[in-house]
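User: Show me sequence and structure for the first protein, then do the same for the second.

Assistant: Starting with the first protein.
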Amino acid sequence: MKLYDYFRSSAAYRVRIAIELKSLDVERIPVHLARGEHRLPEYLAKNPQGLAPALELDDGTIIIQSLAIIDYLDALAPRPLLTPKDPLLAAKARGVALAIACDIHPLNNRRVLDYLREKLGQDESGVDAWIHHWALKGGLEAVERLIEPGPFCFGAQPTIADVCLVPQLFAARRFATPLDALPKLLAVEAHCLAQPAFAAAEPSRQADAE
């Protein structure tokens, strides 16, 4: 398998964590988003969305979207199972993962921020205000109340919630988002990053890191 990856992408970071947790052998192919490599015809032929990550299977099949890729990896290599078997616990973990992946992350990703700057004429203070508002209000502040640390987001084992949380906190820090009022999230993050799989997936440890 091949993962089309970008070291700074929080969505790709999620998939790297899942791969490391499952000890899968996956080739990493960097797609440099800041240089526009995701818009090149050869990449768009694989992923018409032009986003990272994308997973290419050995037969050439392409899977897009980080949560869909992680679902596939969970079925392929169910140890550890990132979406718990217990229906209620699975729903809670998936709810937090979706809150991050669908409600927080999209509003703060590169293409949205570029549109704010280039099309709507926002200066950096305006862009920062946008980032901080949407990352916190109804976002990470809600996730702080939803998780049930033990010491991962929902108990003693990592779930899809942890896989999404750690990259989102990384992204928040990139934009100097204040996180002091989120002690439960910070405690879960610290526990996660102490685990070898989470540490190996960190952006600074990737071959394409800058």
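Switching to the second protein now.
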Amino acid sequence: MKRILKNKYEIKQMRESGKITANVLEMIKSYIVTDISTEEINQICHHYITQKKKAIPACLGYKNFPKSICISVNDTVCHGIPNKKTFLKNGDIVNIDVAVIKNDYYTDASRMFFVGKINKKNKKLCKITRNSLYKSLKYIKNKKKINKIGKVIQKYIEKNKFSIVKEYCGHGIGKNFHENPYILHFYNKNNNIKMYSGMTFTIEPIVNIRSSNIKYMKDGWTVKTRDGGFSAQYEHTILVTNTGCEILTYQRNEKIPKIFINI
């Protein structure tokens, strides 16, 4: 497999792109309230990306995806299409997935938002999903095998009695939306390539509250849990460094460092 390593110029561009991606997720938090439509959220993000940040929403038109961001509510696993008929309601958990292009470089991140009062089980689902991503960052290191990421995530998720969606994975990112390497969120001994300083990729575990089984909707994009159980996802774009890793899409109020020293 060809290794795609970023030079100093490319890393600089990706830091700028990553900051914008993070800013979108920070900005939209105050709009996640009852009775707002997912289409209105999409329009707010589109305007912010294009007008305020002078960037390009990477999702819009990608393989004919019709909107600027993905919004996945409750039992939607991923790739939810914003629309005028879906309104947020009290108790919803919502994933917003944002990818932007700035100066020809992509970054990608997503996080969960709560609408009103959330029950304890769904709140725990989101917390465990986020923590599984955070825990994996401690094992990113130059020349270490990439399957360590999935091993750490899988062990933690299954210890907490949730299930991992295995059909989707993290991916290399840079000049292209998706490139090598691909990051599994479960252990696979054959996924044993090494991480190298200068690699950039996403880690984006999707975790279901019950079964990991999924179903594909007729719109060609939306993926839901087969049993109707809720689903959560967190995602960051990561840079591998000589001493650990850097979160390129780091957001305010995250209770982890932006830069991990994993010597």
